[in-house]
Batch of 4 targets.
Target 1
Amino acid sequence: MLEDEFGREVTGVRISLTDRCNFDCVYCHNEGLGDTRGPMDPRDNEMSTDDVVRFLEVCEEFGVRKAKFTGGEPMLRDDLEEIIRRTPDSIETSLTTNGTFLPGRAEALVDAGLERVNVSQDALDPEAFREVTKSGAYDDVIEGVLAAVDAGLDPVKLNMVVFEATAGYVPEMVEHVAENDGLQLQLIEYMPELAGRPEWAVDIERVHGWLSDQADRIENREMHHRTRYWVDGGMVEIVDPVENPEFCANCHRVRVTHEGYLKGCLNRNDDLKPMGEMTRPEIREAFRETVADRVPYYGEYMVKNDDGEWVVNEEYLSTPAPAGD
């Protein structure tokens, strides 16, 4: 298993299979790359089935235990089931999707070996949903969540980005997962560094405080130092990376773009490493280099200047930290 200079073992990979999407969510940052979505038809710059599988086989060599498939909308890939089926058995597979294609494919994905699914759902009202996603597919998403539960992918984790337009819906979403077996809720802090519009950001600590007051039980997870709240039997987890050094200090994954570039951090695009023709030697070399170049985003690599803006820490770059710090 590979370990970076800060003692973080890389145990997971997050693989974008496409930047195509049938939604146009207002907060989308396309895995940190910006809004680069293009036509809906398959494109030549997407990694092939064999490319993705070869990459996963190298990941297995390095002891990676988890792979999450993302996009864009990864279910626009007709070969998704084949990719999951050919993923090495030692690697747990999961999927982040908007859910619209799950009704017709959830069972096939489970048969292929998919173990978990996250479905983006930012509101329970169709009109509010439309405002955020620019899509009228609310009923399809609801049907997709039910299909995933029925196919055995429970608990299905609902992803809700918390920002100005959605913060008021948090209580009803918490109630929704408490009342429906097989569902959990993941509240994701809005990231203006990637999505822009800083005026949309809300104080995530207020959400933590509200949940603390409601919760029957609270748990802190090692992964990303996340906090889980149990409210009336429903589980709610907060993903709060913004200005959070502990979150970054507990990050154990690297990312892969749909074009086959490795990146060590969601917030960085200055470290993209190509994997060439995706041969095993090229993949191994790029993977090692990506892990070796990983840096903490908040607190060391990125610091606040006198104006309160996040900037690259030039002193850090010129004086690399010793291993284990």
Target 2
Amino acid sequence: MSRLPRRLRPWFRRLPVVARLVLAVAVTMSLVLAGAAGLVYWRVQTALDRQLNDDLTTYQRSLDQAVRDGVQPPPGPSGSLQQVLDARGRVLVSSAALRDRPLLSVAELGATAHGATVRRDVGSLLPITSDTLRLQARRVTVGGQGRIVIAAVRRGHRDEALRELLAQLALASGLTLIAASYVGYRTARAALRPVERYRAGAAGLADGAQNLRLDVPADRDDEITRLGHTLNHMLDRLEASAERERRFVADASHELRTPLTLMRAELDVALHRPRSADELAETLRSVDTEVQRLIDLSDALLDLEELGTTQHISRASAGLAGLLAAAVAPHLRTAGLEGRAVTVEAPGTEVDVDTRWLRPAIGNLLDNALRHATGDVRLTAAVHEGRLRLCVTDEGTGFPPEFLPRAFDRFARAEASRTGRGSGLGLAFVQAVAAAHGGTAHAENTGHGARVVLDLPC
């Protein structure tokens, strides 16, 4: 159908899929049937013409010999006719059915007089005409004078056979085309019926249906079935995504409400009665803390949104040791005030990563370890077969077992730390950075603390 005229293509594309398939089948079958019918007709016509020409040639020879010998022409095949003309085209001898009817044109007479053999048909196959003939004319010399001998045979039986063949081919082709179109229609409808069910299911989902899944046969493995499984998988992902979004909105509302409520309470207390300058300063410091908490939360959400919508991160070659040193430096003072150490073990090699995102991700891991654990913190890095493995290990009590499966969810925090500092977005940011690099992040307990591992292609 790509060969359709340009003006017909919009009309064809507007047709339903079933109609387009049936039309394609019908057009293709029409071409095939027309070709097959044409081949059959040509073979039969060739055989009939060969037989007719053989009879005509044999009869012509006998007529030529009879004219040369000056004897009565012998009888020819059934329905044969004859005519003998002089050099000027006057009829000397003619079958009774022909009488003096001229069979040759002036040009044909001239060609025959110069020695050419003329063969042609009189009358046509369609529409039906009477006295259809095939004639052959040749020049014969008799007693030094030229004669034109015309042999003719009737084509009635031959034409009737061809007309009957045309009618049978047309009937057979028409019935075959109808049957093929019907089978194509039924096949297309049956093949697209699951697609219509899937469309109805998608329409139900658009109308707000919950927990919708498509009915996919379990005993098949064709393209439509695989489409159904893919759509069901997509619905699973959409439902999980919607659930995460609902949980995100609920958690974000809670996280935003808490500092706003505290600020409102502080301001209400400050405005309830006159306060000293020291008390007002303390109130402002408390409000400033909550404002900073809101800013940190907004920045974290914006970073996560940017990571989620960025198609490609900007990788560049960077020294691994320098990258880790830059990530650790802001946390050394905090660790020193608490009497803790942060150690780094890294090879002096180059890695191909986006330092803009990886450095704060490492910083989040160090901040979590310093905030929620005890003892020293160890950051190790190793490069093997094109992959960078970063581990941050602490000496605390580790993650609660029930918290590990959701440690990287947004706003996920262990119950013991929900009242502490932090928004619960640190590990979610770490996982987003790992995913943006095409890697993974996971957390585990070591028996002597917790370990968070980043595995990235570099």
Target 3
Amino acid sequence: MKSLLTATALAAATLLATPAALAQAWPDKPVKVVVGFAPGGAADQIARLVSTPLADALGQTVVVENRPGANGNVAGDAVAKSPADGYTLLLSSGGMVSVNPHLYSKMSFDPTKDLVPVASAARIAVYLMARNELKANNIQEFIALVKSQPGKLSYGSPGNGSSPHLAGEMFKSQAGLFAVHVPYRGAAPALNDLLGNQIDYLFDPGIGLQHARSGRLKLLAVGSSKRSPLFPNVPTLDEAGLKGFDADTVFGFYAPAGTPPAVITRLNTEINKILATPAVRERMVNLGGEALPLSPAEFGKRGMDDSKRFGAVIRERKITAD
């Protein structure tokens, strides 16, 4: 009996020590970050920006793998079905959690149950950009131009239900105009077609700002609640008369449900340290957003709030991905 009690006590002590031991032992092999969008887009750039210093902090290689498709669902499904051991993470826009359940009548996983928030990375604004050949030099002229040619102009997005797509639909609804939506498999292909005059405008998540600076594209407005520090003279759509317009989204890291809390805490701590460094904060601004360090709970709440906000737009515009 005494030996049984001793064995039970040792087992209990081992279980209690497991989280601390795990935090010290993890990671002992490379960590993979699966990005839900194509190379060159905002999600991809953020993943690579954070993953390099994260590898230094963890003492292990952090490999970035792009798996675009279905507005982040392809990558989300892959990570949700991965072992919950901290070695496979997801970097996605918050839309995968807050938007996709409103878009798809059936999903192969439940992002609110099969994934857990680890750390937010950045709040990304969207920028209304048009090709140079359009005869509109400010947002008021642009709205008038699109209204005068209903259905004749087109706008691109990284895909159905992406934050730039929802921004485009919000814009059409609040401005009372109509343009044709052209979905792409990522922000970079959409930007390339705008530069090639294949589409007329788009809500860019920041990767096209260099072309606004060089004069290759017209930057007409910011689809955020506040002006960008990079372009302080460019008005928000709210200032242009579309009151309450805010299409910002939060990009961040997720892990399979069941990942040990000690691992999530370690990742959140290291990522937040990285986001606080001046170099990363400056790079996030240059990407068109801002670093946004949050706790896992705060990140999760932001996703729930965005779900309510974007869900209303999706229902009003009758947007589906099926």
Target 4
Amino acid sequence: MSLTAPPAPAPRASYAAVLSSPYVARLLGGTLTGRLPNGMAPVAILLWTSAAGGGIAFGGPLSALYSLASALSQPVKGRLMDGYGQTAVHLPAALLNSFLLLTLPAADPQSRPALATAIVAAAGLTAPPLEAGLRALWPSLLPPSPLRHAALALDTGSQGLVYIVGPLLVAVLTSVHSASLALAAAAALGMAGTAVVACAPPSRRWHLAQSARAAGPMRRQLRSPGLVLLLLSLTGTGFSIGALNVWAVTLAERHGQDLLSGIVPAAFATGSLIGGLVYGRRTWCGTAVGQLLAAGAAFLAGWTPLLALHEPPSLTVAVAVPGAFLTVVVGCAYATTDDLAPRGRTSEAYAWLILSIGVGQAAGTALSGRLAGHPLASASLPALGAAFALTVLLTARPSLACGGRARPRGRHRRPRGSRRS
């Protein structure tokens, strides 16, 4: 009989086990609530501009400006979190963002377009970096294990709820009252969710010690071919999302069904949520890079039916197919970025990934707004973005494979200076 005690069983990789871990449900729920303005504001701005007489031709770029400004400021806010902690960044950003969204209806897009543009840009710049913050917290919340793999998949997949609840809520509030009410609701929800996260002990205590050695490698890694090409490919993924949002609004106007502007993005995000839940239930064979390429190809194939379908019910069902692979693309991109990122700069690394998606989303929104009068061209833009993403990923495959070979799948480095709560 062996005198050695048997090893403790590894935590079950179930979502119930993830959510029962300390602070996980609170942080995930607060992040989702605080990020609702990301799903609500672009649609609400587009509908508000159109209702106020500005039209989709001005509302599309204005909506894109919010997403673009939010994305461009992500690396700066990530660096600030690395240096000063999360609460010091989250709370001031949320206060400013909510205030600006509340004041936007006072700016007439017809008589004062410059003022409306300035408010939208400032609101986007001050959106709190909750997604990157939650990603940086996972190493201090859960040990490297199947449990963390499930948590990361749940995190990535559940972010789709922002784009299910957000556009639907905007569509309902606009139909019942006005787009101004939708903007006010976005401001209130963003502030409430951010406060839940920023006041949680793991977020308040989280801090990464800065060092010259940590800063130097980050600059070199961000210029590495693999990471640069990965980020470039994600702009194509974001382009597809942005083009879809405006295409949904034009579809609603063409068929005279206002709720389609929220239902179509919600169907896409529902597919994303389901795909993420399925992906996180098991450990898949192959490397993260191989999974990323396979998911990118499936994401592209999922967009092609939009070119042949014309009726709203069939189109609504069809957009759930590429949505199902979006979470896998983003989740594998996070894993690859984690492999390439140096210690001590995790928030900034994740922020650059979010920036890439956001820039692409803004470009897709702007171009789709300009082509709103051409149904076939508007419907083809999401597939165009997915094709660009896959082409860049295939080009980057050798560099990505070399970068991700250092660590086995499912393991993540714990940043220096992070503390378990």
